[in-house]
Amino acid sequence: MTFFDYLISVDARTALMRRMMQKLGVDKQLKSVPDHTAVTSRAVDRCRSCEHQDECATWLDEHQQADNPPHYCRNSDLIARLKHSAG
Q1: CA atoms of 12 and 53, how far apart (whole Å)
Q2: Largest Cα span, the chain
Q3: 45-48 — which CB contacts under 8 Å span 24+ positions?
Q4: How does pLDDT run along the chain (87 residues), one tens digit per residue?
Q5: Which of 34, 54, 73, 84 could cysteine-pair with 69, CB 3.0–4.6 Å?
């Protein structure tokens, strides 16, 4: 189990982060950034402190694929940087 997998398994909010990263196609980029452990840890912290857990779960269930996260996503900037680095 990788550190990323461990962090994601901690609770439901971090599971939402994993789903969001996969849905937006940046999960592989996240694993390949320099110091990805620290970057992932900060992203998990932002997700875990979010108050939109129910909205996020609903959004993820309703979108088969998406180009951008919902407006309230606390990791929007990170996702944008990861998309830019892949592109």
Answers
A1: 9
A2: 32
A3: 46/74, 46/75, 47/13, 47/14, 47/16, 47/17, 47/20, 47/74, 47/75, 48/10, 48/11, 48/13, 48/14
A4: 666 666 655 677 778 888 999 999 999 999 899 998 899 889 989 988 889 989 999 999 999 888 999 999 999 999 999 998 876
A5: 73
